[in-house]
């Protein structure tokens, strides 16, 4: 496949690029600072420096691709619109290039369906208070994606860790994965690659979590 990754220098994005290349996919990593992409030169990798907020600048990076993956998020806890602004720009670029498959990393923390009472009424309110600004941005980003008209999938993980790839990912399209509170970035990247070609997840929100029951 030909895949474009936005947010490639983040933990999840870098892992996704690495796994996609290992699987012999062709990857375009769109970055602001190429030096921050800690992968090095690899066959099949094209690193492009572009402003994600400029649709005209990024349209060539998505043209002719089989899928676009969004792994962009705010780095701090202050007021931000980075996710929603980036999503609007990428959607515009994808429409211009007639590319439809859009896999987007969101967060399980902004959803409560299926949560146990302690998580829903104790843990989540605390989490949403601490991360209220990036979560508010992510909620708007989801609205942008849902209204894009593209073949989108929203992938919502809980807390991300730097653990190893286990190959065990629990997912649910109706509610959050109950009793699972983290997933490694390596497992999330593995899940994202699988999601790209899973037609049953087109225009679906899927919650994912790692670990063995």
TrEMBL record:
Signal peptide: none annotated. GO terms for molecular function: biliverdin reductase [NAD(P)H] activity; riboflavin reductase (NADPH) activity. Residues 7-198 form the NAD(P)-binding domain. InterPro entries: NAD(P)-bd_dom, NAD(P)-bd_dom_sf, Polyketide_Oxido-like. Gene3D superfamilies: NAD(P)-binding Rossmann-like Domain (3.40.50.720). This is Putative NADH-flavin reductase. It comes from Herbihabitans rhizosphaerae.
